[in-house]
Specification:
Elements (H helix, E strand, L loop, with lengths): L1 H18 L9 E4 L2 E4 L4 E4 L4 E5 L6 E7 L22 E8 L4 H10 L7 H7 L7 E10 L2 E17 L11 E17 L2 E10 L3 H14 L1 E2 L2
Antiparallel strand pairs: 1-2, 2-3, 3-11, 4-5, 5-6, 6-10, 7-8, 8-9, 9-10
Length: about 220
């Protein structure tokens, strides 16, 4: 009786593992050296120098997140001269989803932010930049052979930092400075698949990050 019970237990566990109930969830893609391949949506991109990429666990609208490793020094005239360890690390987020909408209509509803897209809440949880940001420009782009639209935004904010130039008797006073995040939201579509790419960094060093963004976008290939 005990042997029969053990056999049933082993068979049950084997079934659960083979059916995927307890199987470990896979990643959204594979990073081979510096080339990322999305396993589901079949596109590739090259990770720029000085950036690292993290693939997400399936299922996920967010396919990959890239973060700059070593930050560019702040130019004179910004927060230069301030003891500023609390800096924003430039990031690139890549999302993919299915939709029956045209590219123009999808972008219209996404920017309106009125809850008319099926996964709008999930988009905004990942696309933290667009909320309360100021629109700068819009233009048509082509990425990996696909037509798309690129929106540029900036987001101003105030923060408290220490100013060593006003050091008195060993104390460093705090001052309030205005900073801004600056970046791009790129939306592409291929049939019923929509791709959303958010590139976001500090306004003060945006000229350096823009070069990295362009390098990544030029490397995109759709292989499916």
């Amino acid at each position: 009786m005990r042997r029969r019970l053990m056999l049933v237990t082993v068979l049950s566990l084997t079934f659960l593992l083979s059916s995927g109930v307890w199987a470990k969830k896979g990643k959204t893609g594979v990073l081979d050296k510096n080339v990322f391949t999305d396993s589901l949506y079949k596109y590739q991109l090259t990770v720029p120098f000085n950036w690292k990429l993290k693939a997400e666990k399936e299922p996920s609208l967010l396919r990959a997140t890239l973060q700059k490793i070593k930050l560019e020094p702040l130019p004179a005239g910004g927060s230069q001269g301030y003891y500023n360890s609390d800096r924003f690390s430039p990031t690139i987020k890549i999302l993919a989803d299915t939709t029956s909408l045209s590219l123009g209509r999808f972008c219209e509803l996404l920017l309106a932010g009125k809850g008319q897209l099926p996964h709008e809440k999930e988009y905004f949880m990942k696309l933290d930049f667009q909320i309360q940001s100021d629109f700068v420009s819009e233009k048509k782009v082509r990425v990996g052979g696909l037509e798309g639209i690129e929106y540029t935004f900036q987001k101003k904010y105030l923060k408290r930092v220490q100013d060593p130039r006003q050091r008195t008797y060993g104390t460093v006073p705090e001052v309030t400075v205005e900073e801004a995040l600056y970046g791009h939201l790129i939306v592409l579509n291929q049939g019923n698949i929509v791709y959303i790419i958010q590139c976001l960094g500090e306004r003060a060093t945006s000229e350096f990050e823009d070069q990295d963004y362009q390098e990544l976008l030029e490397s995109v290939k759709f292989i499916g």
